[in-house]
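ARCHIVE CARD
Drawer: 12
Card no.: 0347
Subject: one protein chain, sequence and derived structure
Cross-reference: see card 0346
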Amino acid sequence: MAEAEFEADVRTSLRKIYYRSSGEGMKAGPRPQKPADAKFLDGLADPDPFPDWLAAADLDYYVEQFKQSGFRGPLNRYRTSDLDFAQQEEIANRKIEQPAAFIAGQLDPVLSFIPGVDLVEVMRQHVADLRLVRIIDGVGHWVQQERPNEVNAALLSRPSRVSCVVADPQLVENGCSQGHRVAVQRFRRRRGRLQHDAS
């Protein structure tokens, strides 16, 4: 069971998993060739020192959280991926209408999961209001950790507009359209009611 392998040494497991799919890990070369009976973590690099985008304090926190929860829940998300297609068959051809932004690392292995298929173009066909696509050079799967400044700049950029409803309203209000200012005002009124009810 993958849980037993990962939970035997949570810190090393997380370090190897984070590094393997990062920009540095992807630049290091292809995944090692392993026999069929090898474990997932066998042969994966565990660099020392670790890239500075994962602070020691953050890793300590993740380790403690996974020691408490284990890996069963996260792994089950992948185990049930086939079930998603069956349960979502009725809405498979519907488009996502909400405003959306997509930010990813150029070296994110997810982008090449299906050889010969441009998954960003596939996404464009299913997302009706895709306002921003930003692919950041040299970055892997953990784009918001590897390049936080570039991710924040993209979210706050004028083309996205999405930031007006997902980020701090005070921070982005001046860059919002009138429609989004209304959404911000509603957010503040609702937050005020919740705070009043809780007092």
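Annotation on reverse: The first helix runs from residue 2 to 8. The first strand starts at residue 100 and ends at 105.
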